[in-house]
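> Could you send the Phosphotyrosyl phosphatase activator prediction when you get a chance?

Sure thing. Input:
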Amino acid sequence: MPTFQKPRKAVLSNEQLAQFQTSQCHKDIVSYIESLNTSVIGVKLSDECPQSPGIAAILSLLNRIEGLVAEIPPVDNKASRFGNPAFRTFCDRVTEMSHDLHASLPNLPEDAIPEVATYLEESWGSRARIDYGSGMELNFLCWLFCLERLGVVQAEDHTALVTRVFWRYIGVMRKLQLTYWLEPAGSHGVWGLDDYHFLPFLFGSAQLKGHKYIKPKSIHDNELVDEYAKDYIYLACIKFINSVKTASLRWHSPMLDDISAVKTWEKVNQGMIKMYLAEVFGKLPVIQHFLFGSILTWEGEFPERHDESQCGHDHSRPTVQEAGGWGDCCGIPIPSVFGAVEAEKAHGVLLSGPNIRPVPFD
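Output:
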């Protein structure tokens, strides 16, 4: 019988990051991402796909978490365009419910719950900083990986894990971002893709591989985007970005604009995987928060516990700052895009048309 353990951090230096990148854990997670990616090639969100009982149980769990948002409204924070403190109450409630939520999942051993639940609890954003980024999104993927290893879902569920479960998670995250004005983690959003997410663009580009007439440049055709957003994750993300940001895609999402010049979705998808390995798995400011337990294992001794500041980073180590490529490890606080939009409305500024006053979010 496995001995489950509460996951903890192990990567605090560039040397440990290099060790992680050559580990079996790294290989397993990358292989999992590639398998999920392959499972949705040419698949629409509405297409039928195999679903074990675990899929329905996970979706029910996500529905319960989303239900907390209605119970925990944002506090009056109109003077600030930054994260709403009510998000901390949401995080506390998720933690309080965590055991019961996981007890509802089929085939999950009870003694595994503390380990597995940690990944889900860390999937919604930073309680301390009221922000969200690709590291939290990675935690959700790790949660799914653990559930599959423990038999809650199977490999045959991979398509449903993307088109049903992961996409449902993104829907809950959008509600959290909108309600609590979560700040983008770091000062650059996710490299011009989206203030918060990376994986929807990776999986979304796989869905569009080989499409007869939707091409990467089609993201600039608003009518086409509106028509097919219900079928394809990539286009749904473009529609969402266009709905909350002013000015053109070329201005506020330069990376997406550059990618639209690529000829095929095959090349886009290949590039997304390479970028994910470099900019998520290859960055110390992200992987220093990666959690290792008995399922996602750290090969070696865990470092001695170090003092952390409120933001959750060890600022005494210069390697944290040096390795990130984006300046300091926390990044510069960025106002929530939703907070900025509300500020625009409050001041009577047009959100579309020739009088747009763009606000630099990225």
